[in-house]
């Protein structure tokens, strides 16, 4: 199938491998934290309803939290839960001495206002980095919790020593939790960083002309296999943030996972590409774990 692949040119940015490396580092630091304080970092995840994909992600967050030596628990609500009850639970977790991090899995049912929920989480426990205080601090470069996915992407670029200095980075997508924050992080001073960033979105004219100018292409458009080979220049580094379940009768599960990038045709052109599965999703969990450890340290240890 991939007969035209030049192996020396195509680097897979393997999120599993990078995540394993970071998780070992987190586990060592968590053990040190526990030795000093007698407690484990503690993450509470709230899941409303029983969306199949959310179940998978939440299970992975719990499994990985325990793997690195955290306490982790899941609070479940029916999708008929009132906004008031959900906010009440958040208040309780905010006030709890034991809880270090709170994550409310998105999306939420339509009758619950996501913004209200996000804003209710204490910024001290906002390990998703979605609270306006966290995002505001990020904007002016103060220490804070970075949103987990952009944080994970920065760690992936760092792990593979992708050169970013002075490069043109095109970010496709302008969401609050991926496109906008990753644009900011990559344009900032630092390594990874110091990129010239262009943001594209659904109203962008002549999209391919812009994406073809990217040295680094971050794709977070939320559309299965949207990016095709003609949109990418030879040698570019492509980071695929999308994850979609496509019906597939040949699989036992009944579906397969694809990203926002048509991997088989884009990969042969790339200097590097993150696959789906096995790419950014696993690094998102790393971002979350790092934030949770940091939250525990800030709440417990004298600075
Ligand atoms: N409050 C909140 N925080 C989030 O961070 C958040 C969220 N809501 N809602 C949904 C998105 C999506 N997300 C993923 C996490 C892990 C994988 C992951 O582990 N993916 C595996 C495969 C997973 C599978 O088998 O389905 C992989 O790509 O290899 C994917 C996606 C976190 N999100």
TrEMBL record:
Pathway: One-carbon metabolism; tetrahydrofolate interconversion. Residues 147-299 form the Tetrahydrofolate dehydrogenase/cyclohydrolase NAD(P)-binding domain. Pfam families: THF_DHG_CYH, THF_DHG_CYH_C. It catalyses: (6R)-5,10-methenyltetrahydrofolate + H2O = (6R)-10-formyltetrahydrofolate + H(+); (6R)-5,10-methylene-5,6,7,8-tetrahydrofolate + NADP(+) = (6R)-5,10-methenyltetrahydrofolate + NADPH. NADP(+) binds at residues 173-175, 243. One of its GO terms (molecular function) is methenyltetrahydrofolate cyclohydrolase activity. Keywords: Amino-acid biosynthesis, Histidine biosynthesis, Hydrolase, Methionine biosynthesis, Multifunctional enzyme, NADP, One-carbon metabolism, Oxidoreductase, Purine biosynthesis. Transmembrane segments: none annotated. Its EC number is 1.5.1.5, 3.5.4.9. Residues 13-128 form the Tetrahydrofolate dehydrogenase/cyclohydrolase catalytic domain. One of its GO terms (biological process) is methionine biosynthetic process. One of its GO terms (cellular component) is cytosol. HAMAP family: THF_DHG_CYH (MF_01576). Homodimer. Belongs to the tetrahydrofolate dehydrogenase/cyclohydrolase family. Catalyzes the oxidation of 5,10-methylenetetrahydrofolate to 5,10-methenyltetrahydrofolate and then the hydrolysis of 5,10-methenyltetrahydrofolate to 10-formyltetrahydrofolate. This is Bifunctional protein FolD. It comes from Anseongella ginsenosidimutans.
